């Protein structure tokens, strides 16, 4: 076309680009302008010419030039194959000329313009180099006549390497391999080219005196370092270490220049992070420990450390340098065994450890975290830990790092504001930081010396106990000491420190204070030191008195634990929890004083010195200790006696659990509000709710903690075996001492479940208007969305809570307790529970009544906690009477519910109703989607247990290793029920296409388990086989774009086709109807399957071939990501095969190899005489 046509088109495009980016443009005009640009780019034969004209015109605005570059790049991508050779050559030459002479100043030209030009050239390179553009590197070198030309040339190499070697985002495999081969063949020339540019411009930078001139050279040097950085990630180490490690020496030198040190540090970090396979390559990293190099590293790091407190840029560089030192340590861990064999320890090892120790002292938590991770690796390395120099540094590390466990707070940590945006982020990180330190302490105690850390802890804690000043610093320090004491005393050989540790424990127990916060922290120290009681039993009553003094702690002006502050509540709760912890870990130690504990707790309750929930917690500890009797009669009598009062109180509430009306009135569900207050003592319904909470929590704790001995001989001697024959496979049915209490309380729990289910009925919600109170609690929302709510404060302040929030928590906790109680009935009581008269009808009438109104976030507990255990612990003998009838009602209901819910979620996704897209509604829909996914996964897990577990609650004498992926006997019973089989099979087939990839994979795995049995037992008709194949293929269209799903579906599809091909010919016709299916490919695939069925398959090779053939059949039908749906296909044609030139070494003549006289002439002269 004529020049006038190009000019007019450019003018129109410029106007359209300005309209698109102008904020004042109306929506319709912006859309019209955008469509005009896209239409021109796709259809106009002069699109590339116009794009170049706009991009090269420096008088145009940046928006227009960017638009031109985008048009040019897209034209090259989509229409390069249609260009004639002249147009291709013209584009290449014009772009290279523009780099050489048509660009602005390197400082004023925006980075996105330079990057856009480089990407256009890279797209041409992908289609032309090296076969049709062998002079590329020479032309790029020719463009380096100015700073901006050099920078763009470096960008071209950088983007090419990123696309080909680093990110590997070039989809055409052959072209990517050819370009990669060409790059590797010319690595020597490329590295020499890059180094020459870096040297030239760094020299110019040093010689320049003008500020702008120096900045120009810095720009180019930074681009060169960035390009080096892309190469060192994947090139062989020999190129990095070439010429006596010249590149590394240059980088170390540049670390001292503030303008280039960050780029140099990034490149150096990538170099020291290289994972080498050959030992010879790895040994070259020892050169970093040479004096000249390590001096430069330390000098740069020290300079950055001095300026980091006032400058965040220097702090970023400091962290980079610390990472370099840490990676060198990681390399050293892998090299140490090689060093031991071939040479001595690395030079300057003591200097290096001093530097690491220096940064262990640094006030930055992030810097500390990096170096402490390295110390952990050193402590785990047995050879390094034996080194004499390293041994000298372990005590120094311990002295420094112990004080680092004190949590100073987000605002008090010097660098935390630079590293973390919120207190929650700081709190999460500090938790990880502490774990690293405690892991190091544990390793030092186990592998080095048990006394080293204890010496510091003893001195530290003793000084704190002598302190007369009570402040927050003291609290935080004792808290840190308690955390360190645990790994020191639990992992150490106590012999060297036993006497001193016992003395320190006595000092803690003798310390008297009226401060509840300090008492709580000291109680943590007692907890960590309880292991010492095994060596001195006289301490046990003293410790118990200390714990009970904390449990009964009261402040002045209060009586019997009522109306107490939050800090005192925390202390009392801590004491109760500690007793449970000790009873869990050291039950045998507490067993001799069981009667004393029981009498003490009873006395405290009778005198009203502890409240009901504290009493429940203490009884939980008693039950744990009572398990040590290992006598059914004694344990059963104790459990029955201790549970009498809570059971009677629970039974007295039965009238209030009879209907939703009485329950709502009893708990005050309609009397709540959003006013946040400090205390809810004025709430008249609080007492009623606390009664329900106490009864459910108490009975749940008793049932959960009462255990049967794990040894079969102890079961026989203690009377735990039911007087029946063994139940088969070397297993016995046992009885639990708490079974009678649980069986008596079961109707009450079921009544409570039914009345809570009824709260969600539309009639009750409409009548009482408490819908907001039944919503999920904030903790559930935070958990399901992956958010954190870490309180970085000490947690000692009173928190204000509204009565509505309290009511939400009550309903949530009560409902959870119900299903955890039922879980314990299944898992702990086994056959006693399943043989209860009328159990099936009670569950149907009470537990499952009204569950169709219960929201997904509450129904999860029923499925995940109860149903999974109910199925897993049901024996085959109880299936027909108990589990079978329940499943016949529950499974069809879940199929209907999940199907309707997924349809609802899909309708929301495709809805375009902008009027309702407010933030609150969007958040609600997101939560609904997430909870539906979780409910689906939980239900599929329960189905998995149904088909692959389910062995009853038995004590196994001779455990057998069974195939966990095989269909269980219980699963076979389920599949023999026609209704259940069809329902569950339909559920799994629908789960294949529901929009949750994880659920689809789980359904795939379950279908592979049950389908062979269904086929072999002749329980599948022709229509069913057809529907199975259709569902599997539909799943490819719905979720086949996900690699995990594609793999699982491919395996399932091929196996299902093999299993059904001979008996159900319709599966072939289903496969033939796949859109885009080539009938010849299908015939070859079918023939291969028939060969496999007839037993003529050739093994694993055939499996791979079958997968490739099947993928070819369904390739066009497989779903795509939404981002890829309307993406234009980019076709890069393969060029003539690229054969790397072979370097032939010339065979030199003798005259060329020998320059000195070797007496040949003399030899012949002597022969002629």
From TrEMBL:
Belongs to the exportin family. Residues 33-101 form the Importin N-terminal domain. The gene is Xpo5. The lineage of its organism: Eukaryota, Metazoa, Ecdysozoa, Arthropoda, Crustacea. Coiled coil: none annotated. InterPro entries: ARM-like (IPR011989), ARM-type_fold (IPR016024), Exportin-1/Importin-b-like (IPR013598), Exportin-5_C (IPR045478), Importin-beta_N (IPR001494), XPO1/5 (IPR045065). One of its GO terms (biological process) is protein export from nucleus. One of its GO terms (molecular function) is nuclear export signal receptor activity. One of its GO terms (cellular component) is cytoplasm. It comes from Lepeophtheirus salmonis (Salmon louse). It holds the Pfam family Exportin-5. This is Exportin 5 [Megachile rotundata]. It comes from the Eukaryota.
